Amino acid sequence: GLGIIGRLLTYDTYAMNLKKKFTDNYDWYLFNLSIKKDAQGKGIASKLMRPMLGFCDDEKMVAFLETNKEVNVGLYRHYGFDLKSEERIPKTTVMHYAMVRNPKD
Fold first, then answer.
1. What is the Cα–Cα distance from 96 to 105, expressed in whole angstroms?
2. E strands in the chain
3. What single DSSP character describes residue 17?
4. pLDDT of residue 90
5. Cα(18)–Cα(22) distance, integer angstroms
6. Which residues of 15-32 are buried (b: 16+ CB within 10 A; e: fewer)?
7. Which of the residues 26, 51, 81, 94 could staple to 101 if both were Cys, CB 3.0 to 4.6 A apart?
């Protein structure tokens, strides 16, 4: 119903304001990487992330992503992302982690 729409709008506004704060909206927004539990640990994330991050480096573009799982923060740090924000999404109990990766030379 309308409640879910309101929560989605609240989240979207919150997340996009953080993205703008950390990247000035000049970035590639990496959205929704998900690997099935039984397929994790097989290098699939690397096969998806490395070409995209290489593209970001070639184009001298910042990469931005967000996760709601603390366990993912270490994975993204492995790819050169820095944790910029760790806080609860307003009006929820859900944690939000905003991460940025500057282009590599």
1. 29
2. 27-29, 62-67, 82-88, 95-101
3. H
4. 85
5. 6
6. beebbeebbeeebbebee
7. 81
Paired tokens of 79? 């790819």
Q: Identify which of 54, 65, 63, 64 has the alpha carbon closest to the alpha carbon of residue 105.
A: 54
Give 98's strand partners.
66, 85
Q: Is 43 exposed, middle or buried (0-12, 13-18, 19+ CB in 10 A)?
A: exposed
CA distance 21 to 97: 14
Instruction: Express each pLDDT in 7-44 by its tens digit.
Output: 888 889 999 999 999 999 999 999 888 889 899 889 99
Tokens of 78: 């492995």
